[in-house]
């Protein structure tokens, strides 16, 4: 009897050795299975949006049965929120790494803008879940997106406040303007099929942002 290699723990037939005894199939470790399901869900949600996507589609994309999918995520919303949290955290970490990479503030602005362009330019399209979700009015989704934006803005505001001595509220408003310009311009750049080379687009937006922020004198 022919056997199939077990790749997902549910769809392959149980291996049968020559002596006729049936052996239990090896199962994918839970963290690996979760990562596999999240990847499949991301592909489906990016392609179809939340409302058009179905758990059947995600299970099929992952190559598992629906019961296996439900073992990890009780419903479509829980799966979407887990995915959204993953990618908002990814953006936050990219922005924080950009700020920590140098003490030169002009370069920091450049690196922060670049972080948004790199996030948007990722071929997996995950930025659409964060910036273009069709669940923008859902409280849980809105909270995750707002939290990601807030943490990014606070990290940038920390640097602005420390260097300029501006009141915290002023620093946070400047930081919000910086990330808003970076995010919107990056999405516009992508929508125009990258008409401007990415390095040039980043340099343009970084120059505009730095010209404004550098107008505030450094705090002694």
Structural class determined from secondary elements:
mainly alpha
Largest sheet geometry: none
Order of helices and strands: HHHHHHHHH
Cα-based radius of gyration, to the nearest Å: 23 Å
Domain tally: 2
Question: What is the CATH homologous superfamily assignment of the largest domain?
Answer: Tetracycline Repressor, domain 2
The general outline is: elongated
CATH level-1 class of the largest domain: Mainly Alpha
Helix content: 55-70%
User: Under CATH, the topology of the largest domain is which?
Assistant: Tetracycline Repressor, domain 2
CATH architecture heading of the largest domain: Orthogonal Bundle
Compute the number of strand runs: 0
Could you name the ranges where pLDDT drops below 50 across 5 or more consecutive residues?
1-17
Strand content: under 5%
> Distance between termini?
80 Å
Mean pLDDT: 88
| Number of distinct helices | 9
Describe it.
With 220 residues, the protein is mostly helical. The chain has two domains: 30-74, Orthogonal Bundle (Arc Repressor Mutant, subunit A); 84-213, Orthogonal Bundle (Tetracycline Repressor, domain 2). The chain contains nine helices and no strands. The chain has helices at 30-48, 55-62, 66-72, 76-100, 105-120, 127-131, 139-164, 168-191, 198-213. Helix 1 (30-48) crosses helix 2 and helix 5 crosses helix 8. It is elongated, with a radius of gyration of 23 Å.
